Amino acid sequence: MNYTVFFRRIRESRLFWVLTAWAVILGFNALFIPEFFRINIQDGHLYGNLIDVLNNGAPLMLVALGMTLVIATGGVDLSVGAVMAISAAMGAVLINPAPGDKLVSNEILTRNATNTPLAIIVLATLAAGTLCGLWNGLLVSRAKIQPLVATLILMVAGRGIAQLITNGQIITIYYTPYFWFGNGYILGLPVSIYIVTAVAIIAWVGVRKTPIGLFIEAVGINPKATYYSGISAKNVQLLAYTFSGFCSALAGLILSSYVHSADGNNNGLNYELDAILAVVMGGTMLSGGRFSLLASVLGAMVIWTFTLSMYTLGVPANALLAGRAVLVLLVILLYSDRRLVKRRSVRADTQPKSAVITPDENRDLPRP
Amino acid sequence: MTQRLKLSVMRHGPLLTTITIFLMAYIIGAQLYPAMQRPQAFFNLFINNGFLLIIGIGMTFVILTGGIDLSVGGVLALTTAASAALLKIGFSAAFVIPLMLVMGTAIGLGLGSIIHFFKVQPFIVTLMGLFFARGLAYIISLTSVTITDPFYKYLALTPIYMPFFEKAYIYIPTLVGPLLLLVAIYLAYFTRFGRIMYALGNNEQSAGLMGFPVGRTKIMVYGFNGFCSALAGIVFSISLLAGYGQFATGVELDVIAAVVMGGTLLTGGVGSVIGTLFGILIEGTIISILQYNGTLSSWWTRICVGALTLIFIGIQSGFARRKKEL
Known about the structure:
- The complex is a heterodimer.
- Chain A is mostly helical.
- Chain A has helices spanning 2-12, 14-32, 49-72, 80-95, 106-109, 118-141, 147-165, 180-183, 191-208, 212-221, 223-228, 233-259, 271-281, 293-313, 320-348, and strands at 39-42, 45-48, 171-172, 185-186, 189-190, 261-262.
- Chain A has one domain.
- Chain A is built from 15 helices and 6 strands.
- In chain A, strand 1 (39-42) and strand 2 (45-48) form a beta hairpin.
- In chain A, helix 3 (49-72) runs antiparallel to helix 12 (233-259).
- The longest helix of chain A has 29 residues, at 320-348.
- By secondary structure, chain B is mainly α.
- Chain B has a domain at 47-248.
- In chain B, 75% of the residues lie in helices and 3% in strands.
- Chain B is built from 13 helices and 4 strands.
- In chain B, helix 2 packs across helix 12 (273-293).
- Chain B starts with a helix and ends with a helix.
- In chain B, 50% of the residues are buried.
- Chains A and B meet through helix 7, helix 13 and helix 15 of A and helix 5, helix 11 and helix 13 of B.
- Chain B: This is Monosaccharide-transporting ATPase.
- Chain B: It is an enzyme of class 3 (hydrolase).
- Chain B: It is found in: Cell membrane.
């Protein structure tokens, strides 16, 4: 009896499936591409595929953090990729030491100099993304537009805005201090990892040590009931979307710093899809409700482990799309199956396990 | 009498707004750029946006049932890439075109089945479909493949001169969209299938309780959309005489925007394919105005489409609120 309870607790833990998926991929790598696990030390920095997973995956982890909260409120944020492009464009334009009215020569463009102090650049990029998030939040919470559509608008227009900012050009960045965010190292580990950890800890403290996390779950499960119990569902939604915008802006900053350029069309391409995948893998239901920040970060890590393993095997990046699609399909089927399992166990239970968050039966009802 | 008039304005309000905005946009464009006054400029809207119209019809049906299909661009690209590759190997067009249509329908039916049987939200399943189809297209070929098939070339390069208009012409594939529109109007308003579709979008539960075949209709609607996407892919590959996995990126958003502009509610149950036609014409007009202007850059199209979508959603919710008050 105790064993069954133990195994059920493991199986129903939100980290179980994502860790299993990771273990399967790592196991595959151990068998077929053992060099995947090699880590070298050069100039006091750690190098290797596993470090790359963390460094390349950092933007996705950040986006997934924001997306988790949005999805937990029962919405979705499709604009993350476009917001990343906007923040990257913002950074690149502020750095570029050639303002529009001056004669631009190649020598000016490729100089290791900046137009604006680095601190202001960082603040401006973050502010741009946060404003985008705020805009989404206002559309969803105040104008009552469906999240899918509200963020779709910024997803279409956002890439246009990013191109408008950079005047349609792909701006290459030559200002070296800016590269620190994507390529720098602290104590042998990439800077981006520290940024992700910091944001994750702040978010975790914010949602788990204050009632905000509970509010978010409540809004995701039943917005009407939440409203009647005196919680401002509007402001909770607004907060989630703004946080998602902030995370995307930070991700855009790291990404543009990593690739040394800002391209309105390609920065953060398909990130919305990967972020949703990461969140879903982390066990947060798309219909809202319970969520786990750690599981989403792990989900992002699984995606990048998978991607880099495929690169190591020599699968072309574009063809990988189909592989990822199959991965999504598997995850969807796993979870829909798991949902059935859970329903049955809920009915069998005589006592509810938790008084606060009951497994929501409301899920299949049409949204208001 | 006034009450009835009011109700009918409320009912057709979004559609009338769309038509008015299209006419206004076109007249303003024609005033600014006299080249747009030629009839050919109007027919160019159909020539350039034919594939959008075809996808838009399928998408309208899906949105009417309360779902959404983000896979259309992927299926379109896959169709172009696969048909180009097959034609290159030496298969005849008479074999390739039906095969592509069957493939598109099969993908749509598959996605619809997953949505229905596993009760997963449509947008995540079709997002996967988008990834999957584009990935397959890249596996077929990482670069653009040109089509040299004589039948495709004949279709692409034979103009049909319009009656009553001097020197105005369209191409054969341009006719596909309007013909499909007629079929869609028949399906939506004169068949059981169409009525069940509307019922499903209004309230799936009551539709099921009334004994309508909810699951079958839903899957069929996604299948129809897959068929439309493949058909659009064929039209697209004929007009460009090439196949490539990167064709039509972001087309799903343009199509959804056009459907919304056409007065179809994204919650399902309300809307018409005729509105979608005008939604697409509005988008086409904006693009042509930007092209005739020449100094405005291409990204303004995206910003305009985004802004217009927002405005139309505002208009829709305004009408919905007024309707409730009546």
